[in-house]
Write a structure and sequence with these properties.
alpha+beta; M1 Pyruvate Kinase, Domain 3; Arc Repressor Mutant, subunit A; seven-stranded mixed barrel; three-stranded antiparallel sheet
């Protein structure tokens, strides 16, 4: 079902650089947008989709939300696990709503408070192709697993799939759960609260452990479901 249209695209060459408007963007399966700083095989936040309505209602300057993809429909009603088809080829797996962090206040004081749940939806690329403004956006339904907006729940979900006998470093745990590395300082207490079954699944980067370190292999692979939509 068509739910709207892609209206603009932007790429960020580095995480600290401003979004650069582009006439088209190449989406790479399991990677993200070619040339974008957030392209990462092991991240649930490869690209950000924002709705034009938030810009209109809040009177925002272009790119204030730092999105890659701007669409002409509201994103706060999109559901995690939904697959969107953009144009004819690109398939996006919607992951979770993007948190309104304090960095937004650099563009307008109080924006992180005012934006609420309208910052946009984070997504992964599951089938690649070229996207262009004017491409139709279709909702194919909730075909892939949903991810929680709550970062605690995402961390727990990642810990639950660490292979037996392996460990994940705090840095990779944050990356896989889609949170900033500053959250690593909360992991020791969280692991302690989760109990002995989780105590040894995540370790600091410099921990003297001999167990193999898991980086996320297989976490985002759902090939049987992908075949349903292609």
């Amino acid at each position: 079902m068509k739910i709207g249209t892609l209206t603009a695209l932007a790429i960020r060459a580095t995480r600290g650089s401003p979004p650069k408007p582009v006439a088209c963007a190449d989406a790479v399966a399991q990677r993200g947008l070619l040339g974008d700083a957030h392209a990462d095989r092991y991240s649930p936040r490869q690209l950000l989709i924002a709705g034009a309505g938030a810009y209109r209602d809040l009177g925002l300057a272009p790119h204030a939300l730092r999105e890659n993809v701007l669409v002409d429909f509201d994103t706060d009603e999109l559901e995690s696990g939904t697959v969107l088809r953009v144009g004819e080829d690109v398939l996006l797996w919607l992951m979770f709503q993007c948190e309104a962090c304090g960095n937004l206040d650099a563009f307008r004081p109080g924006l992180s408070r005012d934006i609420g749940l309208r910052r946009g939806m984070l997504a992964r690329v599951i089938a690649g192709g070229t996207m262009r403004p004017g491409d139709p956006v279709r909702d194919l339904g909730p075909l892939l697993p949903a991810w929680s907006d709550d970062w605690h729940a995402r961390v727990l979900a990642v810990l639950d799939v660490v292979p037996p006998g392996h460990v994940v470093t705090y840095r990779d745990l944050a990356r896989l759960a889609g949170i900033q590395s500053t959250y690593c300082r909360a992991f020791p207490r969280m692991l302690n609260n989760l109990g002995p079954d989780y105590a040894d699944r995540a370790v600091p980067m410099n921990a003297p452990v001999t167990a193999p370190r898991w980086q996320g292999e297989g976490l985002f692979e759902h090939a049987p479901l992908l075949r349903v939509v292609t």
